[in-house]
Specification:
The complex is a heterodimer.
Chain A (H helix, E strand, L loop, with lengths): L3 H13 L22 H13 L1 H16 L9 H30 L13 H10 L3 E3 L5 E3 L1 H14 L10 H24 L2 H4 L4
Antiparallel strand pairs in A: 1-2
Chain B lengths: L1 H26 L2 E2 L8 H7 L12 E7 L6 E5 L5 E6 L3 H13 L7 E10 L16 E10 L5 E2 L16 H12 L17 E5 L5 E5 L20 H7 L4 E5 L2 E4 L6 H5 L4 H12 L3 H10 L4 H24 L5
Parallel strand pairs in B: 1-9, 2-5
Antiparallel strand pairs in B: 2-3, 3-4, 4-6, 5-6, 7-8, 8-9, 10-11
Helix pairs in contact in B: 2-8, 3-8, 4-7, 5-9, 7-9, 8-9
Chain lengths: ~200, ~325
Amino acid sequence: MNLRPPAILLAVPICCAQAQSFAPQCSRRTAEDYVAITRTERVADYVRSLTGLNAFLYAGALAGSDQARDRPHEWGQGHLGYERRFGNDWATHIIDTNLEHGFALGLGEDNRYFASSSHNVSMRLGYAITSPLLARHANGSRSVSKSVLLGVAGAALIAQIWQPRSTSTFGNFGRSIGMTLAFRAGLDVFREFAPRALGAFVQ
Amino acid sequence: MIRLLLCLVIALAAEAQQAERMAVEATQPGVLWRAPNDIGMENWRCGSAGCDHAPAPPYHFVKEDMEGTFPKLSIQDAKGRAWSVKFGGKVIPESFSSRFVAALGYVVEPSYYVGSGKLDEVSQLRRARNMVKPDGTFHHARFQLRDNQSLQFLKDHSWSLADNPFRGSHEFAGLRVAMMLLSNWDAKDARDGQQQANTAVFRGPAGEMLYSFFDWGSTLGRWGKLMRRTRSDCAGFAEDSPALITGVRENVVEWGYSGKHEDDVRSGITVEDLRWLAPYLSRITDEQIRTGLTASGATPRQTTCWAEGLESRIHAVLAVAQNGQYAR
């Protein structure tokens, strides 16, 4: 079992974190600061989603988890097995990003994360956990994100094409959706509670 | 025949008037800056042109303007004045920055923040449909006065930061410092085309040519290029503030700012330029900044955050002006 790549990916933000101090009012961009997304901001967000550290983190961690559980067993172990799993998760992410941003543009949804304005820990936790499923609109209102659901489900469905027999199942399709949304919820919890310098790595 | 002669006379008169106007323009020196009066609390509270010029409800919807990036409407207020109403991310930056820039003596179109209001007879909105309810009510808008009597926008005129009559002057350096103080990364000018330029020439009431950087909507956030820049982002603004000035080399100030045409914005500003600007900059008080931010729609948290960031930037500029060198 080779867990080195995800371990390295997880270590990067920790070792590179800078000790910066910000006034409490300025420590993070919160929901209170929300302004409607522009076309150029959409482009920047799209590029960031494709190339940002969180994409590598997600693919790396998921591939590591599947490697540890030898899932799917057809892809074997060692470097080659990890590369196949990483490639699978990375390709799924690319498809998901393209579908999600396309739908978001058409539907006028904004799926960027803004920290909670609340000071209550349980409120903030609830806000972060539900954030992946909620999109903002130009006037700041929030509703269930159709673009996220369509993107995640569409990517999981398309990824079935190259799955080996043992994971080419309806259960695996559902698992893929669940894992993606769970990872995003975890990432948003990290963004919400991590110090600003650390959280900036996964913006 | 009489009608034809009448048309000819009108055409000749119009041509003569145009020639006269162009002759005036040719002889009038351009104005970038005028010594500012101490604009007082009223202008920080109401808007750069004072409380008397603030928009007066009820507002009458005229049309939706499809130019630019943000939803925009043309409206008329109860006093019959024309306003350009904008929604979204430029509301606080434009409302506040116009006050700040006017306080330093630069020409800006008066902008006002209107927290909520109602438009009469709104119909067929496209981009602004999410910002204005079907009954015409709206929240969080920036009203900019379109007053041809005091500031006539000259459509065929623009200027660039690289080529203008003011290069090398303290006044021009002061404008660029103001841009960096507010993190204005969208420094598009005549080189980017007439439609895109954020630089303009207005004709003033006495026929003078007023050179203006008129779009201050991409401010109060993080400076930078596409992947980094933000607007109306107090946390990002605070984050960049310590890096505004990075050093002084051979009397030339070095800046951390980046954005469109960044070299034209930040290069060649000397300590003497900052010394020229210092009296006007130091006149702006903490209370004025906070009043201006609150009146521009900022929440208490945002006001504190932006004010602290801006004050630290002003102190950094004043320290270099005073000491002639930069000490981190």
